[in-house]
C-alpha cells in the first residue's frame, strides 16, 4: 500500500460538547495519518479542528445541544475537513481582529487565538454561515516529501 | 489530563500530564487559581508529559502569567516543552512571554 | 575525582564524580572553601556519581556543613547517595548531620 | 571454578603516598572478589584498607618516604590483610578515644573516624607496633550465603 495514495472520505457526527474533542482529534488525526501527513502536520490538523469545534460549541451553540458533523476528504493532494453545525449563532469571520502575537504580556488579550491558529496551521480556512447552520472548511495540502 | 503540584521553598512545580483542551483546561485553571490564592506566584510548569495543548490551555497559562507577574511578585516559566506544543506556542507568540528551560533543575533553581 | 559547580539563585549544586580519598579530598575541600568565601552557604551535593568516599571525604563534608550552618546561614544537603557510600556515612553517624534527598529537584527546591 | 574456593596469598608493595590509594583499593578489592565476598563486603574491605594506609602515610611516615607492603591471605573462611610499614612513628591504639558518632554537629570532631570505621567495617583489627616498623592486620570473615 502506498501511504497517502488511496483517496478516501470519512464522515461522523458528535454531540457539540467539549468532552468529545478528544475523540474528534483522534478521528481527524487517524485520517491525516492515513493520508500520509507528517507527525507535525497531523498535530496541526488536529489542533485546527479542535479550535474550530471548540468555537462551534462555545460561540455557535452557546450551551445549546446539537451536533457537529465532520467530514474528511483526502483527494491525494489535500485534506479537506468540513465541519457542519445546526447552531443558531454565526459571525462574520472577516470582522474578527487578528490578535497581536507580538504584544508584550500587558497588552495581550486573554483569548482570540483560535481562528488565528487555525489559519496558521492550515492552508485554507473558509467559513460559510447560513440560517440553517454553519459550515467551516479547513484544508491542508500535503507537504512535499524530503 | 492530570495535574500535579509540588511545593518547594521558593517556587511551585506544576506537572501537567496528557491533553489540555477546552474540556480539561478549566481543571488546570483551578490549580493555578488555588496557587495564586495562596500567594504562590513563582511557578515552574513541567510540560514534558503534555501530549496536546489547545488555545484553551494557552489562555490558562497566559492568565496565570499575568497574575504572577503583577507587582513583580513572581513568574510562570515553562520547562521541557515538547516540540509540537512549542511550535503552537510560538505561533501564538507565547515564547516571548514565557521563559523556557530545557531541564527542571535549572527551572527550579531559577527562582 | 571531578567536581562540578552549578550556581542557582538560592543554592549551589556541587556534583562529585569518581573517588574521594586522602589524595582527592583536598580538591573537594577547595571547591567548598571557594563557595564559602563567596558567601554561598546553601549547598546541594549530588553524590550519585560518587564511586567511593573515605573518611577524608567525610571530613571535608563535615567541615563544610559546620561552616554553612554557622549563624544559620545555610546548610549542606546530600542528594542521591549511593548505597555503599550511605552505609559508610551511617557508620560515621553522618546521616544525622546531613539531610538527604533521593532526587535533585527536591534538594534544589528545599532551599 | 568454585568462587571463593581457592586458597590464595598475594603480596605487593607501594610507596607510602596518597596517590597510590586507588591502586591499593583495586588490589584488595580484586582479592576480596576472588574470595567471593559480596559487593558490599568488597567495598568495606577496600575502605578499611584505605583508612589504614591513609593513617600509615599521614601519622606513621608523616611525609617521610617509605613503603607499605600489603599481603592478602584467603584461607577459605576469612580474608586477612596485613599492612607492614617501616615508619618511624607508632601509637597506642587502645588509647585512641572512640569518636562520638551520635554527637550533634557542634560537638563533632573533625577527624578521628579512620580507626573507628576500620573496626566497624572489619571483624578484627590488630595493631602491632615495633621499632623496625608497624604491622596492622585486618580480618574479615565470609558472610554466610543467603
Ligand atoms: N463558530 C463561531 N460562531 C460564532 N462566533 C464565533 C465562532 N468562532 C469564532 N467566533 C467569534 O470569533 C471570536 C474569536 O474567536 P477565536 O479566535 O477562536 O478566539 P476565542 O474563541 O478565544 O474568543 C470569538 O470570540 C467569537 O466571538
Ligand atoms: N598508623 C598510625 N601511626 C601513628 N598514629 C596513628 C596511626 N593511625 C592512627 N594514628 C593516631 O590515631 C588517631 C586517630 O586516627 P583515625 O581514627 O584514623 O583518625 P584521623 O586519622 O582522622 O585522626 C590519629 O589522629 C593519630 O594520632
Summarize, please.
The complex is a heterotetramer, with two copies of chain A (146 residues) and two copies of chain B (111 residues). Chain A has 146 residues and is α+β, with helices and mostly antiparallel strands.
Structure description:
- The complex is a heterotetramer, with two copies of chain A (146 residues) and two copies of chain B (111 residues).
- Chain A is α+β, with helices and mostly antiparallel strands and 146 residues long.
- Chain A has helices at residues 21-34, 39-61, 114-121, and strands at residues 8-15, 67-74, 78-85, 124-128, 135-141.
- Chain A has one domain (8-141): 2-Layer Sandwich (Heat Shock Protein 90), CATH 3.30.565.
- In chain A, strands 1-2-3-5-4 form a five-stranded antiparallel sheet, covered by helices on one side.
- In chain A, a hairpin with a 3-residue loop joins strand 2 (67-74) and strand 3 (78-85).
- The two termini of chain A are 20 Å apart.
- With 111 residues, chain B is of the alpha/beta class.
- Chain B has one domain (2-109): Transcription Regulator spoIIAA.
- Chain B is built from four helices and five strands; from the N terminus they run E-E-H-E-H-E-H-E-H.
- In chain B, strands 1-2-3-4-5 form a five-stranded mixed sheet.
- The radius of gyration of chain B is 12 Å and the shape is globular.
- The model of chain B has no long low-confidence stretch (mean pLDDT 97).
- Classes of the chains: A alpha+beta (146), B alpha/beta (111).
- Chains B and C meet through helix 4 of B and helix 4 of C.
- The structure holds adenosine-5'-diphosphate (2 copies).
- Residues 55-56, 59-60, 89-91, 96, 111-116 of chain A line the site of one adenosine-5'-diphosphate.
- One adenosine-5'-diphosphate (ADP) binds next to helix 2 and helix 3 of chain A.
Strand-residue proportion of chain A: 15-25%
Helical fraction of chain B:
25-40%
Q: Please give the number of β-strands of chain B.
A: 5
H/E order of the elements of chain A? Answer: EHHEEHEE
Radius of gyration of chain B from CA coordinates: 12 Å
The percent of residues in helical segments of chain A reads 25-40%
Question: Unreliable stretches of chain A, pLDDT < 50, 5 or more residues?
Answer: none
Count of DSSP-assigned helices of chain B: 4
| Class of secondary structure makeup of chain A | alpha+beta
